Amino acid sequence: MAAKYDVPEMYDPAERPIPALKLGAMADSKPYMASPVHQEKLGFPKELPDDWKDRAIKRMGELLTKYRSLRVYMDACVKCGACTDKCHYFLGSGDPKNMPVARQDLFRSVYRRYFTVTGKLFPKLVGAKDFTKELLDDWFNYFHECSQCRRCSVFCPYGIDTAEISMAARDVMDYVGYGQKYCNEIIGKVHEIGNNLGLPEAALANTLEGLEEDVLDDTGVAVKFPMDVEGAEVLLIPPSADFFAEPHVLGLMGYAKVFHAAGVSWTVSSYASEAANFGVFIGNYEQMRKLALRIREAALRLRVKRIIFGECGHAWRVAYSFLNTLAGPWDFLDQRYPIPQHILEFTYDLIKRKGITLDKSGNEGKVLTFHDSCNVARASRMGDFPGGQFVIPREVIKASVPTFVEMHRDTTCEKTFCCGGGGGLLTDELMDIRIKGARPRMEALKDVADNGGVTHMAAICAICKTQFTKVMPYYGFDREAVVSVHQLVSNAIILGNNK
Amino acid sequence: MAYTLNGKTVEADEEGYLVDLNEWNEELADLIAKDENITMTPEHWEVINFLRDYYAEYQIAPAVRVLTKAIAKKMGPDKGNNKYLYELFPYGPGKQACKIAGLPKPTGCV
Q: Among residues A100, A212, A218, which one has the least CA distance to residue A160?
């Protein structure tokens, strides 16, 4: 099904024009709706009930009380316009409903109608709207054209976070049986099998065995990929895409080599074989908690001392920001190490202490740039210093490759653009908006490819890696130009004779 | 959606993946492939058969790497790579080949 998509034109990232408005350009873009089976597994209503409006408003009230931030975001906007041209989906599509303020207003108009005095009395004067089925459908479409990347919030003078509004909207929709298939089907699989893919234990064991063979063939060194090993020092929690997809798996091989070279015992768990936590995408605390508790149970069962997360963007957001409240206390882990730790922190520390040796010639001919993943950049940190989440991945890359080039600074660090596939949008039926949303990153990449000789772009998120593999060919890049950071480490690391 | 084969209707999901894997047969595979603008050749069948065998054993499609390795063993090292598989299945060996093989779509960040 090689459908034709309208691929946006690319401009110089330094002079990016604000696109001409195309009213309703993405009005038809929407994901598949969750089936009754998917909904039921998560305890949500199977389909839209007759009294959906009352239920939705009740749920909004609960969220507005529970999350005071949400109410502040509803009240604080002064329509200054600073966010309007900051969203990658707006820049790629020109649809004014993809301006962050317009997206927020879908929620805000309902909020005003049912939760403010002026909106109850004089709805038209304050932009308050009845919650109609038509508006609900607009919610479904446009809250699934937000990847919850938070770039707009960096530019908002009041710090309004569209991601939180979009999460709340999706939570309300789940409560009225209007869920999204992609996220809800996947969450159900983690509850049942332990990972997004639905990779059962035997298949995981077979996959890991194959990787041991590959590394042995490649290097002559017997690097292990242990599973369910009780008493291991480290429990590694990678995104399950690391077992399955390219270039993700090349990163997993990098983690294994680093553990091997450092002489640290580790294991993955067949029970908690997933870093990703799609509970955050649908804004549902109970789902997020249930997913996180699997990691706790695996850590206890395997009696590990440390937990290290693999390269996964939103997983690190959930782990870094919420793991303690979701699934703590972690008093049974070794308190001398960060809880949890990121694999990049682990590798960076080893590089600094000369605990591993990297030979840049392993990546000869490659000129690298780095795509900051939105959730790592704007919703978490790494290391023990401000900005560590920007510095540490770059230092690991620079230690592994001969040449590193930065992309335009309007597109890096806290101003990074989403890959276009985050937030539960990495599904085939949303390919059009995914291609359009990738535009700002593709422009910045083209700029350094043309003017800086960049050959590869490294990423530290399973979603980013898959999204780029799929959309880069539309922009004239090779799909293999996107690489895992630990793939570069894997190519450069000297394994020596460690036993 | 659904496929119609010899007057019989076979149910599929929104994207054309079979709802009931037991309804698959080779004729149906040809029909699904046609829908995907793919003409099945013996090379395509090598991939499809491997996917089905692997699924029968592990209840999931193989990782891309497992697939490329198996194809390299069967058809020679020059064919054991992503590029070759994308030539056969332009929308991606994972998803498109699974659809033709009557297997569920791999989900998650893949």
A: A100
Residue A99 has pLDDT above 70, yes or no: yes
Helix axes B64-75, B42-58, angle to 10 degrees: 130
B109 as an active site residue: the answer is yes
Q: What strand order describes the sheet that includes A341-342?
A: A266-267, A234-237, A306-309, A341-342
Residue A458 has pLDDT above 70, yes or no: yes
Residues of A in contact with B17 (CB under 8 A): none
Q: Which residues contact A71 (CB under 8 A, 6 or more apart)?
A: A64
pLDDT above 80 (res A225): yes
If you search the block for the tokens 């592990």, which residue do you land on?
B58
With a CB cutoff of 8 Å and minimum separation 6, the contacts of B49 are none
Q: For chain B, say whether A276 makes contact (Cβ under 8 Å).
A: yes
Q: Is B107 close to A186, i.e. CB distance below 8 A?
A: yes
Phi-psi region of B40 (alpha: psi -120 to 50; beta: other; left: phi over 0): beta
- Closest to A435 measured CA to CA, from A198, A91, A191: A91
pLDDT of residue A383: 97
Q: Is A3 on the interface with B (CB under 8 A)?
A: no
Pairing mode, if any, of strands B2-5 and B8-11? antiparallel
Q: Indicate the residue of A200, A245, A428 with minimum beta-carbon distance to B15.
A: A428
Residue with tokens 């931030």: A69
- Position of tokens 């149970």? A297
**A59 is written with which tokens?**
């749920």
Domains, chain A, ordered by start: 13-185 (1.10.1060), 194-405+454-492 (no CATH)
Q: Where are the domains of chain B?
A: 2-100
**β partners of residue A307:** A235
Place of tokens 């010639």: A361
On whether any CB of chain A is under 8 Å from the CB of B82, the answer is yes
Phi, psi of A336 (to 5 degrees): -80, -10
B2-100: CATH topology? Arc Repressor Mutant, subunit A (1.10.10)
The DSSP secondary-structure symbol of B12 reads B
Kindly list the distances between the CA atom of residue A145 and the CA atoms of A26, A27, A57, A96, A141, in Å, as whole numbers in the listed order: 9, 10, 22, 12, 7
The answer to whether residues A105 and A51 touch, using CB atoms and an 8 Å cutoff, is no
pLDDT of the residue at B91: 86
How is A94-150 classified by DSSP, letter by letter? --GGGSHHHHHHHHHHHHHHHH-HHHHH-GGGGT-----HHHHHHHHHHTTS-----
Residue B48 distance to chain A (closest CA, Å): 18
Query: By the CB < 8 Å criterion, does B95 face chain A?
Result: yes
Query: Does a cis peptide bond (omega within 30 degrees of 0) precede residue A17?
Result: no
Tell me the shortest Cα–Cα distance from A482 to chain B, in angstroms. Answer: 14
Q: What is the pLDDT of residues A163-205, one digit of tens each?
A: 999 999 999 999 999 999 999 999 999 999 999 999 999 999 9
Element (H, E) at A485: helix A485-492
Q: What pLDDT sits at residue A3? A: 57
- B1-4: long-range contacts (C-beta < 8 A, 24 or more apart)? B3/B28, B3/B31, B3/B32, B3/B35
Give residue-wise pLDDT tens across range A28-61.
999 999 999 999 999 999 999 999 999 999 999 9
